[in-house]
Amino acid sequence: MARRTIEPVLWLLFSAGGVVSALFLPALVFLFALAIPLGWIDEPGRDELLGLLGHPLTALVLLGVFVLSLLHWAQRFRYALFDGLKLKAHQRLINTVVYALALLGSLAAVVVLWQAVSARNA
Amino acid sequence: MTQPTKDAPRAYRPEMSRLWWLGRRSYVFFVLRELSSIFVAWSVVFLLLMIRAVAQGDSQYRDFLDWAASPWVVALNVVTLAFLVLHSVTWFNLTPAAAVVKLRGQRVPPAAIAGGAYAGWVVVTALVVALVVTR
Lengths: 122, 135
Hints:
A: mainly alpha; 3 helical TM bundles of succinate and fumarate reductases
């Protein structure tokens, strides 16, 4: 029997993250990184935006999108370094750094979205 | 009979430059596609900074919008959006290869699967825009 590894799970998360990031991120980045800061659409007030972003359902969906997107990045970036830049010799270091960053980002997502939900309730 | 010396049968390992992918347009495209993941990660960081500012208060939200409208952030985010669209298009185009769907014993044509993926993209985008614009 083949040795059990975590690799298939990581590829599954990579795929899930690929799907949700492809579906959600272009719209979110277009709106929040370009359309709103540059005034292409009426700027939403802070309270209105908090009402939307701090809604538990929105926060839950965003948490899923963010965490899976970070895991998508982790897997794809690792292999870009291994194959693209031929850094397979440093596999262990790269794995540690990339997954530590993905984990940190996921924790930050939990904290920030929790802040939004509590601020909306306050 | 002579024994082969210790280092005689050595595997042939062709030397490849770290920039091997610059040699052909399709290789460059492959690397750009893989690099889109960096911009996926940056989008998450940017959106988290935005949500944090909104959660913190009115003045933090204003400061964030000012920062987001500064030239280098706008430039970075224009590049980011271009890479995100590259990611979405390449991802949905590959969906039929990854997901072989059978319906009543018939294979669903690849074009229909890709079409469904694009339709999903349109629906999600419309939903997100509607939620943010109407609030």
